[in-house]
Amino acid sequence: MARELTNCFELYVNFLSGETSAGKSSMLNLILGEELLPFSVLSTTSTICELKYGKKRQIKIHYKEAGKEPKIKDLDESSPYIDQISEFVHVKSPTLREKASDYSKVELFWPQKLLQVRKRYNSFAFV
User: Residue 83 and which of 19, 49, 59, 90 are 20 to 30 A apart at CA?
Assistant: First the structure.
């Protein structure tokens, strides 16, 4: 029984939510020490984002379309990370802001010590 309880607590998630344009992305960028997530005075993040520890900088895109397999994209240093991530989480046009995103969520894997806690899986999820 004790071992089962231990396994229960090995996976935990910190959930961040708030009003539209409350600064959730800006706060996470500040905590992580890098501008990864797009931000604006208008509604910006249109997709649920999960930030997780990973040895490689990657994004895993989950589609809303039934049967469509998730896609993993390696992020590279040739262009700003925020630009590579924005296309999956950022609503740029006010007219498109009313339209739902094509993605159910994205997972952002990042080699950030704050996301890695004592060899346990740690993540931030936010909308």
Answer: 19
